[in-house]
# Entry
Amino acid sequence: MSYAQRGRLGRMLLYIPLVGLALIALFPLYWVFVTSLQLPSYQNEEMESPVSYVESVPPKLYPYGITEYWSQWDKKRDAEKLGDEQAASFHAEKMQEVVAKTFTTYSYLFKSTDVLKWLWNTTYIAILGTFGTVLFDTMAGYVLAKKQFPGRMLVFWLIIATMMIPDQVTLVPSFMIVRLLDLFDTHWAVILPGLAGAFGVFLMRQFMIAVPSELLEAAKIDGAGEWRTFRTIVIPMAAPAMAALGIFSFVGLWNSFLWPIIVINDSKMLTLTAGLKTLQDANLSSFKLLMTGAAVAAVPIMIYFLLFQRYFVKGLTVGGVKE
Amino acid sequence: MKTEMTAQEAGGRISSPASWLKTWKKIGPAYLFLLPKLLLFGLFTVLPVGWTFLLSFQEYEIFDSHWIGLRNYAEAFRNEIFTGALWNTFRYTIVTVPLSILTALIIASLVFPLGHRSQTFFRASFYLPVVTSTVIVAMVWRWIFNYRFGLLNHVVGIFGMQPVDWLGQTDLALWSLMLMNVLIPPGSGILLYLAAMGSVNPSLFEAARIDGASAFQIWRKITVPLLKPTTFYLLILSMIGAFQVFTEIVMMTGGGPGNATETVVHVIYKTGFRDFEYGMASAQSVILFIIIMFIAVFQYKMLGDEGVERHKKRRNK
# Structure
């Protein structure tokens, strides 16, 4: 915008480094998907399992099945032209084989590991945790900003004081509390501590201060109860901040790693990130299998991001620049 | 508003049941709204923080814990793995944070002049790898670094060099992790910088251009100084983040080879949950906490009145 007069040439010049940088940025993700879809070349045909897959040297930069499929399709068309029914159906079969082989690691992963269970666990933990965080933090933030009551400043200062303390610092006692409450190896052990953070309350409180008190007074005069005022006035007013908080809570919960690997042991109970760790520990060098797991874990959050991209930008600035 | 409240509170202090009820009606709902958060916050944040400190002065056994004063701390600093981890984490932070922020600034400056659509596209490209879990990113990079099949050694081979054992060499492994960190785009930084650039008054640039300043001069003399608050904010946030580096270590090196890539949080994790030395792990946590607080206070000093003052002075010159 501000460089508009510099003309089109200047702008085109900006694209060259940017496209290069974007390629570097996106390449690892691309590589996950390419590898997961790569045509297997086995060390030993008898051991036809994705675990015995051997990486090709030099690495192929796109799923090689595309080339194979295309050449088979070509041959099939030639055979059809010549009227060779038998050859045509042979190549059609080959084409199907290529497709099947391309996705073989996926079917292996879904059949032989708990990945779908992990996906489900992560999804509902992230949804429940996000919902709880947004609701409780909004309630608390509202009260801290708009109500007077004994102990208000104490709570506020506790929140400020603990905001800078990273979760890693309190790992051991948090684990002991989880043990004491008999929550080890349950999803509550992941969800409940996730609802305890200070940042969300702080964010909501800062946001609520800007909500005009007259509106709340008016609602009270109209005879609305506390909960109703909260639902019909506070929540709509706070929606942008709630959206920001929700967006980031969800990603945070989805990607959280250190805590789940500590409090969950049972493979069926794991979250995706923790599950990927066990997958890697068990198959250290089957990169194709690992990349397939990574792809399964990456797709949902990528879709989530692309859907809510706008809110990410807003959310970051609500939480960041305003401070 | 405030005076009205004190009147109410004063009314509550006359201890007749009716006025108690009145006070409760006034403030009771506030407590109810606060209750769920307060319970969780108390149980999983305040209590563990306090407990960490207590544990750090104890030799912890399930039925027989006893106080040992500062011995855990003394031992932590005598433990070469922990001090090595401190040093590694420090180096990691010092190298990666400035580079990431510089990358963010450069990329944001390149993206900012573009049209709306291109901006959206590049923002997404640079943020997508950040949304994706570090676990996944670490898994790919473990392969990219792989000695036999890895992409990086293939690239190195094209230039006629011998393959490198990126993660397997004691003197190289940490640098490989730093390289990886620098090549992952600093998505949040880019987004924050873009937002900050958007809030700068365009007439500032206009005036500079009329005065005959070149694009680079404008960037150097106007854009970068105006972005200073964002830069400081990012600096502190990234430093705190880098000091907690953990996932990459677990997924890629496990702290090895030897202890070459051991970091503070990884040592805490191992001490606490592999060796079950809760007291020692807590002492190490408190040390981490003090370092992070130090960074935070430093931020406050720089960003607080003093920093603003200094900033103003420079502008007046």
The beta strands of chain B are 58-59, 66-67. The domain at 81-316 of chain B is CATH 1.10.3720.10 (MetI-like fold). Chain B has 16 helices and two strands.
